[in-house]
Amino acid sequence: MATMKVHGSVISTATQRVVACLNEKDLDYEFVPVDMGSGEHKKDHFLCLNPFGQVPAFEDGDLKLFESRAITQFVAHVYTGKGTQLIFENPKKMATMAVWMEVEAHQFDPLASKLGWELVYKPMFGMTTDAAVVEENEAKLTKVLDIYEARLAQSKYMGGDAFTLADLHHLPTVQLLMGTQCKKLFDARPCVSAWCADILARPSWAKVLAMKS
């Protein structure tokens, strides 16, 4: 029986990030669905795992974690002998990778998440997309992707010469935006477009998408 448990929702990008990491590491885990529609994530039994009432929550034996990027870093550092090496041993390479992990979290994800909310989730929930918010965040994302294009012209992956957490952390939101009008922003930049095609084709990610179907 798997000692690791992921409590989450298959449509949650943060949950998908953790599951993709576990798949890359070829680790056994139990997926525990959280019924967000009924507000299960705000009930006491879940708040014991994540006091902020957000998915995912993670258990490995007696260790309990929340925040998807903290979970992926724990998994990558503790289970180095399994699956894909998602981090670097070299301190300088690791520091560069850490920079681009921060870029994803603070520069890319806030914009991608706002656009995903407006263009994917609002229509799903029968709400009206705010065109002004979309326009504003597309303009900001364009500037970020220009920086990504320059980075990926010099480096095959965001964090360096190998696929790492710096790339993996992008997967859920890149996938989300590829199904929207924002796809054109990625397609217009050859290095970004090639990088997206590369990371989205990983078997670990195909397994995540299969959970949603």
From TrEMBL:
- Source organism superkingdom: Eukaryota
Q: What is its EC number?
A: 2.5.1.18
Is NADP one of the keywords?
no
The GST C-terminal domain covers which part of the protein? 90-213
Q: Which residues form the GST N-terminal domain?
A: 2-83
The protein's UniProt keywords, in alphabetical order, are: Transferase
Per the record, a Pfam family? GST_N
Q: Which SUPFAM superfamilies match?
A: GST C-terminal domain-like (SSF47616), Thioredoxin-like (SSF52833)
Question: What is this enzyme's catalytic activity, as reactions?
Answer: RX + glutathione = an S-substituted glutathione + a halide anion + H(+)
Q: Which GO terms describe its molecular function?
A: glutathione binding; glutathione transferase activity
Entry-linked InterPro entries: Glutathione-S-Trfase_C-like, Glutathione-S-Trfase_C_sf, Glutathione_S-Trfase, Glutathione_S-Trfase_N, GST_C, GST_Phi_C, Thioredoxin-like_sf
Say if the entry is tagged with keyword Transferase.
Answer: yes
GO terms for cellular component: cytoplasm
Q: Which PROSITE patterns match?
A: GST_CTER (PS50405), GST_NTER (PS50404)
UniProt lists the family membership as follows: Belongs to the GST superfamily. Phi family.
Name the PANTHER family for this protein: GLUTATHIONE S-TRANSFERASE F6-RELATED (PTHR43900:SF47), GLUTATHIONE S-TRANSFERASE RHO (PTHR43900)
Q: What is this protein called?
A: glutathione transferase
